[in-house]
Amino acid sequence: MSEKHLIVLDLDGTLLKDDKTISPRTKNVLQTLKNNGHEVMIATGRPFRSSEPYYREVGMTTPIVNFNGAFVHHPLSKSWGMHHTPLDIKVAKDIVEALDHYRYFNIIAEVKDDVYFHYHDEKLLDVFKMGNPSVTTGDLRRFLQDSPTSMLIHTEEEDVKQIRKHLSDVHAEVIDHRRWADPWHVIEIVRNGLSKAVGIDKVAKDLGIPKQRIIAFGDEDNDLEMIDYAGTGVAMGNGIEQLKSVANHITLTNEEDGIAVFLEDKFNIKSA
Q1: How far is CA 224 from the centre of its chain?
Q2: Domains, the chain, with CATH or none
Q3: Which of 62, 128, 229, 248 is least surrounded by Cβ atoms within 10 Å, i.e. has the fewest?
Q4: Are 63 and 206 in contact (CB under 8 A)?
Q5: DSSP secondary structure string, the chain?
Q6: Residue 130's pLDDT is what?
Q7: What residues of the chain score a pLDDT lower than 50?
Q8: pLDDT digits over 195-204, tens only?
């Protein structure tokens, strides 16, 4: 076999098709690579509870990076350790306070697998209920008791810039923030210095796999550091232009088996 590689997969828009399933072809290729001694892992902005079904479906045996690096653990090995790097609770509450001066729909705080909603929101509840988290609704300044792993601000597209400017001006030294455009306009906040790359680096060192033998796939701006960090950074065809500009390769879209097509070619695997 070729030297052991670490294959790192983002979930939404990358491993998952638009209907949130994994294609049989991609699953087969990943299984073949695992059988040949390579390692396959997930690095996602999602919490563990909503990534676990895919972790199990692919039969992974590696640590997982959740919340874009704020939570890294090994689902099958308690002794591997749990790396949880939350936001300072005071900073979190200061942000909620400051948002009174801006337009937004809701603020969500997640403490590992517990979810706190500033306002009741049926639509968002529907999205966050995967994995049956404990859900609390009410003013975060009062109800949030623990330092959150991440915070999400749901707002209109035209308000994203202004809110991000405030976050950079006031909290640049303690937080990092990124935007999502899909399925809603959301600003995600984590403690500063965190990214998927930081989590992957921990896992790769533990597995003894050097950076040049890491292949990472992604599509969004929370994948930038990971694609830049990996020896081989691959942007999905449906990825944002900024990501494509830092990637070593661009593959087909998540609807066209982009992961499988790239890996079949790289490792000389015949598609089933």
Answers
A1: 11
A2: 6-84+194-267 (3.40.50.1000), 89-191 (3.30.1240.10)
A3: 248
A4: yes
A5: -PPP-EEEE-TBTTTB-TTS---HHHHHHHHHHHHTT-EEEEB-SS-GGGTHHHHHHTT--S-EEEGGGTEEE-TT-GGG-EEE-PPPHHHHHHHHHHGGGS--SEEEEEETTEEEESS--HHHHHHHTTT--EEEES-HHHH--S--SEEEEE--HHHHHHHHHHHHHHHTTTEEEEEE-SSS-EEEEEETT--HHHHHHHHHHHHT--GGGEEEEE-SGGGHHHHHHSSEEEE-TTS-HHHHHH-SEE---GGGTHHHHHHHHHHTPPP-
A6: 84
A7: none
A8: 999 999 999 9
- 48 to each of 56, 69, 238, how far by Cα in Å? 12, 11, 24
**One-letter amino acid for residue 217 of the chain:** F
- Predicted local distance difference test score (pLDDT) of residue 182: 65
Catalytic residue positions? 10
Distance CA 218, CA 238 (A): 9
Q: What is the pLDDT of residues 199-246, one digit of tens each?
A: 999 999 999 999 999 999 999 989 999 999 999 999 999 999 999 999
Q: What is the pLDDT of residue 250?
A: 98
